[in-house]
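Section 5: illustrative case.
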């Protein structure tokens, strides 16, 4: 992470104010005065403001607009991971709360708070997720009722939980599910003879993807967004 961003985050100030601290020689990194805000800060750097050591306190929470082609793991032999998009100290300590497939885009939540992410991913909590779906073939109206009753997925013993389907056009829909089986949305549409050609997650619980985030961009969650899964 850039030093000026680190100062902005830890001191709760703007980048411009952080620049003034650097210019006034109030910041030391590893015992040396630093004036360059672009200096990269790593986890083992000792950063001080007027002799006071600075570090992140408390868990971290972010939302990311995941681009296509990125995977939600720390290491992959063939594809870039979402963690390379983060300009944060120790991104390896963060994890994804509810993964998306490589070809699925949209809302990804990242945190280092395991209890918080458990409330999203655990089937017991039945956290709802909303996806925008593009389909290869026209979508019959009766699919709404079929999904509401639950469908039988290949290789699964039980029906899926009831899902809400809102048809937007003959090949577009919104689907809300409360579980996270492997490739679930794609498999649900396959079970009724259709194929998903585009999948974008718009919402997890009450947290909606920020419309101002371009693909690959991210931001910290607000206190209100964080609190939803602390209940």
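Designed sequence:
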């Amino acid at each position: 992470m850039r030093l000026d961003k680190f100062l902005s985050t830890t001191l709760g100030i703007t980048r411009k104010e952080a620049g003034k601290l650097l210019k006034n020689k109030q910041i030391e990194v590893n015992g040396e005065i630093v004036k360059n805000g672009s200096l990269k800060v790593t986890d083992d750097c000792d950063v001080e403001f007027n002799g006071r050591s600075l570090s992140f306190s408390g868990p971290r929470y972010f939302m990311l607009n995941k681009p296509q082609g990125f995977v939600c793991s720390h290491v992959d032999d063939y594809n870039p991971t979402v963690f390379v998009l983060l300009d944060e100290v120790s991104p390896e300590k963060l994890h994804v709360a509810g993964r998306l497939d490589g070809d699925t885009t949209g809302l990804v939540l990242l945190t280092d708070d395991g209890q918080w992410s458990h409330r999203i991913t655990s089937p017991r909590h039945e956290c709802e997720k909303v996806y925008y779906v593009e389909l290869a073939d026209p979508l019959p109206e009766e699919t709404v009722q079929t999904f509401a009753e639950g469908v039988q997925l290949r290789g699964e013993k039980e029906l899926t939980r009831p899902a809400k389907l809102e048809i937007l056009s003959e090949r577009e829909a919104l689907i809300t599910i409360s579980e996270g089986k492997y490739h679930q949305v794609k498999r649900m549409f396959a079970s009724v003879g259709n194929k998903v050609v585009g999948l974008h997650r718009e919402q997890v619980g009450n947290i909606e993807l920020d419309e101002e985030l371009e693909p690959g961009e991210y931001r910290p969650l607000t206190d209100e967004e964080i609190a939803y899964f602390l209940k």
